[in-house]
Task: structure prediction
Amino acid sequence: MSNDFLREKIKELRQNKILTQKQVGDYIGCSQRVYSNYELGKTVIPPDILAKLAKYHNTTVDYLLGISDRKMICIDGLTTKQAEAVKTIVSEFISGNNNK
Result:
């Protein structure tokens, strides 16, 4: 997948959350300048940083790279009962979309 897709995707995710480059950089352990270079495509994003970005945005590396168009729902921190409720709702939604 092209570097353009990745850089646009991480920029879009950051802007959708109304975050600064510094805020994301702080989370992944780099400066605002280094993060800016990732978004500009001037620096290749190392695999460990790519994994941190996926985690930060509650998605997958495959989604960031354009390999998959599926986003991820993070259920960490939910009780078992809450996690099961989320799974049920998602399953029902998917089933409902397939019937149309």
